[in-house]
């Protein structure tokens, strides 16, 4: 059946042609409603990400217009067709790993450009980058070489660098040696910098965001052009050799681009719906977070989110480490890693699915000021929850609106204290018991007692006085509800910087004069 789609390009939504086309679409789509009488809404706002009744779909299309990028109505009964970008490379080359990678990038470029939002400029730029990569794929490593292309060779060489931790200087020497060894006219970069610049067209870059010396603010968004901290008035720069060098630089790896790449790859997209069918049949066995109480409660509270199995569930983990490996050197760098839990348990703990989103610089730990550095990630998570993003699904060759939710954090107690703001020491150190933490002071230490209150009320150990000299009759502290915790958060005072000397930070020791030295 030939479907007339010309009406979706009509700008005047009050015209007779538009209304006739809209009514024809509704008449055509009504045969494909679900059990609740709903269909996917193809308006520019919903982008087939919401199921709505026919009357609401009609109203949405009239108010927001039809999504003109929805060329094949696969959600409304039309048989799917392969997009035109699916075959930019000859069939005899599709066995090449790099050719398959470029085909995946072509799908992403068609919708968004490489690592960008949907605009004409980013799409044109992304397509131009894709054509450059495709040209590199067809370029010989050296004249007469038919075994491997210059792009494939460079990607594999960079993979070895990462795998075996070659220093950048070592990579420069290897490239120069290979350049000398290969015949004249070889298409190989001569430095690590040139290699990174060429491979940057594959996307998944990062942003450098300057931070205040005392962790007060990020010089980002509204503060991007400031030269001094708006809170402590400390200069953004430290003068080194006459150049402006920022005190601290936060590396931010955008999450949306990395989630989009998981779906656009035909190899990983099919795994992103595993959680729907991979639940344990034994209620007493938990082999994946999908079997946990929190996951199930989240699905019950947000059924619209749960109805789309491709929506992403995330976990967050962070901790400090010394990147120099020399523990005598005091330096603490904090990577913030987001873990994708849609996939099977044997994959979600593998490196490709642990997404580095932030690299918080040292030399000192951010402590309770970590929320300053988390701001870019938090803003992106809020956007993924409230608005979502349009994603190309490489497994089904369709586009859909994807949302994401952060379900959990995984940390040790000190890191949890920094992330949550709940102290990990003192009388109320237990985050579960909250203000009802059973604790007492013994000499100079705070001890946590009352563990017998979790035993059954008739347990023999409750009557044993050898623990603290008395019988245990109390019940476990009541776990705080969501409303209770939110009420506590409302009473938290505004954050103030704690590291600057004028705000309670440690002051430098006075430098001793010459006559005071031993």
Automatic annotation (TrEMBL):
Pfam families the record matches: Transpos_assoc, Transposase_21
Residue stretches of biased makeup (Basic residues): 506-518
Ranges of residues in domain Transposase-associated: 5-78
Spans annotated as Disordered: 469-518
InterPro entries: Transpos_assoc (IPR029480), Transposase_21 (IPR004242)
PANTHER family: OS08G0208400 PROTEIN (PTHR10775:SF185)
Name of the protein in its database record: Transposase-associated domain-containing protein
